[in-house]
Design goal:
The protein is an alpha/beta fold and about 140 residues long. It has a single domain, classed as Rossmann fold, CATH 3.40.50.1010. The chain contains 9 helices and 5 strands. Strands 3-2-1-4-5 form a 5-stranded parallel β-sheet. α7 crosses α8. The protein is globular.
Length: about 140
């Protein structure tokens, strides 16, 4: 299973060392993020710095560490799926079209997001952090 990580999940993992960050870094899952949406993280960088208490240097280190475990999906891979993704999500939230296109571009993909906008579409399975955490902890306990 491939998990497309929404921007709110990445931002959460940058703000604090939490369950979200732990899952991203230690679960061994195949996480992906649309390269096209990296600007959203930069857009909220000041807020992330403020909430996290990180310096710019620390932010860069955490960002790069987290993205060691998240594969970027090149924009070119999304173009074949963009029209369908727009039909699915544009009327709900145009900024989320890239995440739907990312899921459509990968085989057996779901979206990990706490954004309620994704609940308004039924084409791509979307799991919340609590669902991913339950899945991760179940897999972790079965491996012992």
């Amino acid at each position: 299973m491939i998990i497309i990580v929404d921007v709110n999940i990445v931002i959460s993992s940058l703000i604090r060392d939490s369950t979200t960050r732990d899952i991203l870094v230690t679960s061994g899952q195949d996480f992906c993020f649309p390269e096209l949406s990296l600007h959203k993280i930069r857009k909220y960088k000041d807020l992330i710095l403020q909430k996290s208490g990180l310096s710019e240097k620390e932010f860069d280190a955490v960002f790069h560490a987290i993205f060691q475990f998240i594969r970027l999906i090149p924009t070119e891979e999304l173009t074949h799926h963009w029209a369908r993704a727009k039909r699915i999500m544009e009327h709900v939230d145009p900024e989320d079209v890239a995440f739907i296109a990312s899921a459509l571009s990968q085989e057996n993909a779901i979206i990990w997001s706490d954004d309620r906008h994704f609940d308004q579409q039924k084409d791509i399975t979307t799991l919340k952090t609590k669902d991913i955490a339950a899945l991760f902890h179940k897999e972790k306990s079965q491996s012992f």
